[in-house]
Design a protein that fits this description.
Order of helices and strands: HHHHHHHHHHHHHHHHHHHH
CATH class: Mainly Alpha
CATH architecture: Up-down Bundle
Helix content: over 70%
Number of helices: 20
Radius of gyration: 21 Å
Strand content: under 5%
Shape: globular
Number of strands: 0
């Protein structure tokens, strides 16, 4: 089948480009995922389509993108499940008690600044979307932190148990939970055509789903899947069925499937053996194969050439500045008020400013919902890349590893 042969070629080219750029970025101490993100954009109209449009159209004809989209969405479902699995609800409770001001400021500051900026951008770049979903979505997109990328930066530098590391991961976890809850609400509002039910009934259904997952599914899973025993194949099959049922339920409620995957990860029992088993079975195929397909599909939707005049680049620069200022600076100041040193506070601000892959996931949801225009989508992708790229060098400058470890909790 020609279509199948082309799909295999697409996957091969995507993986090759992702690994080459990931290796190149690793040489300058950047996370590999940043190279994979950049590779996806380079394969799209921003670079390959500009200098070799015939090659891009031959490799990625529009008619062939359906299978690539399906595989990328499956990869995102598995990835969001792993993100939910990494969030520690107990840590969130501890964070809310001990550093409530810091964790909330890292969310509220960017959300408010993003929403205010969205109010000004709506008439210019609103894509004819209703103002409320546009403003809420923009605020949520500004608030998010790339929880998995942040966790890996901390683990690679052996900073997970420093005071700054614990606070950064707590703020990121709180931010991701709140951002995805807000996104679920936005999706219900922005997809009136996806369900015939009235809006109050859809919100009631979403609330019932969340309560059922926390108070019914979670206790049942604790009984059926011992968290401290090796994950055998039948229990893994049960986990996958819970994941798919959760994804189906959120889609049936006209909420994005990725919210269901995230919630499924949140309610999984916590135990070293179970978590290691799930990561062992899912992480390699998700991170190595599936997510690069998402990056490529994202890159095919990103066209930096749409920013074709000085005003659009000024708006893009303003978005980047607001994103950094509202997340990094507001977080740093609020954390300083909680009693940490300025050096630690700015280190945490830099860490929570990492947006990475989670930002791309949210942006693609916004583009699918027609809340974002292709031009604004491209601007936000640039912002995600910029805030992720700056994390490692700024962290080295503000708070070298040796000094950071001296503040271990």
């Amino acid at each position: 089948m020609p279509e199948l042969k082309l799909l295999f070629l697409q996957i091969l080219v995507i993986l090759l480009a992702a690994k080459i750029l990931a290796a190149a970025l690793r040489l300058i101490r950047q996370p590999e995922v940043l190279g994979e993100m950049a590779a996806g954009i380079l394969l799209g109209p921003s670079l390959l389509g500009k200098f070799a449009p015939e090659l891009m159209n031959a490799l990625f004809p529009v008619a062939s993108l359906g299978p690539l989209y399906a595989l990328s969405q499956l990869g995102l479902v598995l990835f969001m499940f792993l993100v939910g699995l990494e969030v520690r609800l107990g840590l969130l409770r501890d964070s809310a008690r001990s550093v409530f001001l810091a964790s909330q400021a890292s969310i509220v500051g960017p959300f408010v600044c993003g929403a205010l900026l969205a109010l000004r951008l709506h008439a210019y770049l609103g894509n004819r979307a209703a103002k409320l979903p546009f403003v809420l979505f923009f605020g949520a997109a500004m608030s998010v932190t790339a929880f998995p990328v942040l966790a890996r930066i901390l683990a690679d530098r052996k900073l997970m148990h420093t005071r700054a590391g614990v606070l950064a991961i707590s703020c990121a976890a709180v931010g991701d939970v709140i951002a995805w809850c807000v996104l679920a609400v936005i999706t219900v509002v922005a997809r009136p055509e996806a369900s015939h039910a009235a809006l109050p009934l859809r919100f009631a259904g979403l609330g019932f789903f969340a309560l059922a997952m926390v108070f019914l599914v979670r206790p049942l899973l604790r009984r059926l899947i011992p968290a401290h025993e090796p994950l055998e194949i039948n229990r893994f099959a049960l986990v996958m069925m819970v994941l798919l049922a959760s994804v189906w339920a959120t889609e049936a409620l006209a909420v994005h499937a990725l919210f269901g995957a995230f919630v499924a990860g949140l309610v999984m029992p916590r135990g070293a053996a179970l978590e290691a088993g799930l990561r062992g079975r899912l992480e390699s195929i998700t991170l190595v194969l599936m997510l690069p397909l998402f990056f490529a599909y994202n890159g095919l939707r990103t066209n930096i050439a749409l920013l074709d005049n000085r005003n659009l680049w000024l708006v893009c620069g303003l978005i980047v500045v607001v994103a950094i200022g509202s997340k990094l600076l507001v977080s740093a100041v609020s954390i300083r008020l909680s009693g940490m040193t300025w050096r630690e506070s700015f280190a945490v601000g830099v860490l929570v400013n990492t947006r990475g892959l989670v930002e791309l996931v949210i942006l693609n949801v916004g583009l699918d919902l027609h809340v974002l225009s292709p031009t604004l989508f491209s601007m936000m992708v640039i912002m995600a890349l910029a805030t992720t790229f700056m994390t490692a060098p700024l962290l080295d400058w503000i708070y070298p590893t040796g000094k950071m470890r001296a503040g271990a909790a």
